[in-house]
Amino acid sequence: MPRASGARVKVATKRVVVGCRLPDLRGNADHEIQGSNPLMDQLLPAALAMIIGLAGLVWGAHHFISAAATGAKTLGVSPIVIGLTVVSFGTSAPEVIVAANAALQGSSDLAVGNALGSNIANIGLVLGVTALIAPLPAQRHLVFQEGPALLLVTGLAGLCLYNAFLGRGESALLLAVTPLLLWVTIKYKKQHPDPEDLALAEDIQSTSMATALTWFFIGLGAMLIASKLLVWGAQVTAL
User: Fold this and answer.
1) 3-class DSSP state for residue 167?
2) For residue 95, what are the contacts with CB-CB under 8 A and spacing of at least 6?
3) What is the mean pLDDT of residues 211-227?
4) Contact 156, 139 (CB under 8 A)
5) Domain count across the chain
6) How many CB atoms lie within 10 A of CB 190?
7) 203 assigned to some structural domain
8) Is the dihedral of CA 21, 25, 27, 31 positive or negative?
9) C-alpha angle 158/164/168, rounded to 5°?
10) What span, in angstroms and rounded, lies between the C-alpha atoms of 75 and 71?
């Protein structure tokens, strides 16, 4: 009888040992390795998207401006008008497209920051860094005509954003000022033509309208796609 009892105890003990489940250390290690740094898993694609987006904007803007200027020259537009409208507004096309994409994706603060930040960078960084290297002689009309226009537009934008909200009415007001300032500038340039502007416009190569339109839409499409990548990368990085 004692032996039987001891055998039962031994068997029961064996069952308990066999029934124990050890933790799966290998599975936990794999899980830790896979989810070790989720932040980097998001930042790397976002950074890559921003780099590709910036490169796409530069490439698309170059072909967009060249095609638009070529098409305008083919239509017989004055070189002064080409320089002041097509080239000037073409250089701002990437910023406009990025701001519009940001607003469509619900990041209106990114659009406002882009507009204000680009002007701050252009005035502070470009003029500041260049003036540190060498003095910058300024033409008289830049100081007494375009300077007040810059102050007017900047002050008007600040007034419209005073209540931290930019509605359609304020946007229409800002857009209405643009043709007026452009008309004043074109009128002055026709009376006082700048040889550098004329030489820049004369260097535009002539081509067929079909070729110009093809590259125009290719550049526009590249900027649209690149702006979406840039905005998405900026949104992920900001989070």
Assistant:
1) coil
2) 114, 115, 118
3) 91
4) no
5) 1
6) 12
7) yes
8) positive
9) 80
10) 6
The pair of three-digit structure tokens given for residue 46, joined into one six-digit string: 């976002």
Q: How confident is the model at residue 199 (pLDDT cuts 50, 70, 90)?
A: low
**Mean pLDDT, range 175-193, rounded to an integer:** 79
DSSP string, 122-161: IIIIIIHHHHHHS-----HHIIIIIHHHHHHHHHHHHHHT
Smallest CA-to-CA distance from 94 within 57, 53, 52 is with 57
Which SS3 state, helix, strand or coil, does residue 20 take? Answer: coil
Q: Is residue 80 part of a domain?
A: yes
- Please name the residues in contact with 106: beta carbons below 8 A apart, sequence gap of 6 or more: none
DSSP classification of residue 35: T
Residue 230, domain member (yes or no): yes
- With tokens 């039962």, the residue in question is 8
Range of the domain at 102: 42-137+194-238
HSE toward the beta carbon, residue 208, CA cutoff 13 A: 3
128 occurs within a structural domain: yes
3-class SS of residue 238: helix
Query: Average pLDDT, stretch 145-158?
Result: 83
Query: Rounded to two decimals, what is the model's pTM?
Result: 0.65
